Write the structure tokens for this entry.
Amino acid sequence: MSISFAMAGGRQEATRDVTFSVSPGERIGVVGESGCGKTITGLSLLRLLPEDVAHISGRLDFMGVDLATCGQEELRGIRGRRIGMIFQEPMSALDPVFTVGEQIAEGLRAHGNMSRAEARDRALEALRSVGIAAPEKRYHAYPHQLSGGMRQRVMIAGAMVCNPQLLIADEPTTALDVTVQAQILELLRDLSDRGNMALLFITHDLGVVAETCTRMLTMYAGEIVEDADVDAALEHPLHPYTSGLLRALPRLSARRSALPSIPGRVPVLGQMPAGCRFRQRCPFAVDGCERPQALLDAGNGRRVRCWRFGDLALPGVAA
Amino acid sequence: MNEAPTPTLSVRDLRIEFAAAERGATVKAVDGVSFDIFKGETFGLIGESGSGKTTIGRAVVHLVEPTAGVILHDGVDPATLSSREFRAARRAWQIVFQDPNAALNPRSTILTSVMEPLAVAGVGSAEERRVAAVQAMARVGLPDEIGARYPHQLSGGQKQRVVIARTLTMKPELIVCDEVVAALDMSIRGDVLNLFAELQRELGLTYLFITHDLSVVSHISDRIAVAYLGRLVELGPAEAVTEAPIHPYTRALLSAEPAPLPSHMRTGARILLEGEIPSPINPPSGCYFRTRCGHAVDLCVHRAPDWREIARGHWAACHFAEQFRDEETAASAEAGAKHQGG
């Protein structure tokens, strides 16, 4: 899948050749820094990008339906029902003028023939399942009356109430305190285990991925540069960018020592270098890196977008 | 520290209250906090929402007025200074915030922004101010030509360097760093943290480093204080606080931090706290942490624990601090013995 935007200077490619699959029960972490394309990849899966400016090419196959081309009717049947999505900021996803219970019940009724009473019971059940104490009381609360952690639970309850097969979570814990984040991560892991739900977890936080996910996709400048099991990616990264991110983590350096960093900055849309997009910042760049880079099969179900991966022994977190 | 030097900053029983939105209610943002920071030291202050960490930082540079308590700079209470003396003295205490976009005027060039505090303070001629600004920019690794640009033409890391350069023009002694790397991408956080360390070595700066990020604070700090609901719960050398924490809240906080480690390298069971941080408008009786603490007993409901020195330079406020300290000592002795044996 590639996504391009119509911009003042012509069509700009925001992501290129993003290819991956998610299986039931699998939890994939999509990591990368600002502008790497992780958020628009998540949004595009539900066609939530404005269609007049964003153009999606490629296939988005969900259980045999191509989400990129299917009709609006079919899309509505999948969006919110079989694929749920949660965001960083629950206040922008919740309607301030309805109680949280009404909002969840409303979502249910929009997706099926269900009586008011039945929807209410299911909504209460959903609130209970995300660890909200006294759901009968919270049902009648407005979003502003709840704390940040509680709102995030409500949003998850709203996404989970239809038992989706896939949940897309975009930085769902970034705005939360660390002790509350730990509770929410535990909840997401548990919901995925219990319901065999697939999870696409978009985040910049490698610690969160390590604790929550089974697989890790690293994105850089609109491309997937590495795809591996989380443990393998952390211990033996194959792409210099993944390795650079891991080495930049403060906890891995001796106290008060200088921290490794990645020089330079992410290339901007419209100024992508030819060939490897990371090569201007890569300590291992050589002649040949200016040639187009494919996402290569690295064995053991791993993929990496670096033709030199076999020659490099890159440090991970254990080194 | 045998000669017991005068601390660069001394905070004594600081209390700060705000009027809450609810009529007649007050928020005790800071509720009796004391600590000292010595010259050239990096003092880390960690806490979650409502811990009062940001308010403490603002009070230190006199952006908020304490309700009670004293803040001494080099042993001097600024309240005793004339307003003229105060204006001159306060240049030595600077603060850097999380978001450089909010700190820079989008319509001013970078050079103008860096020169501005000097102009406000009326220091030197226009040319002297320009030279000082260019020198400060060079010191933080910004080339001359950046001076002619506008904030939107710079990356987040560069903008934060501009803000630091501007601070340096005031020749500060103490800089309060409030979440200064929280808004930066991972790959450039290291650069900015390295810059702070470098400036400290070269200029002998003292930092109060406020953050919610444990990995950052434990990397750069000499000593760490942990705040919860406006009070300190623990304070000590960075190694001791992060590796042998005494207070149950510090332990929970450390265990909640997601570790970027493969599954076989993870250690210890997670302490998952129940519930959320209580409102500072209506904090619990006794120990503020007791509503979420797995060790809480009757005593904790009725009496707030004393803030006391549990080990050399290691302070905590918990009725069971001595017991937890002995457990940590035993655990590390056992780990050490195992290490020696293997």
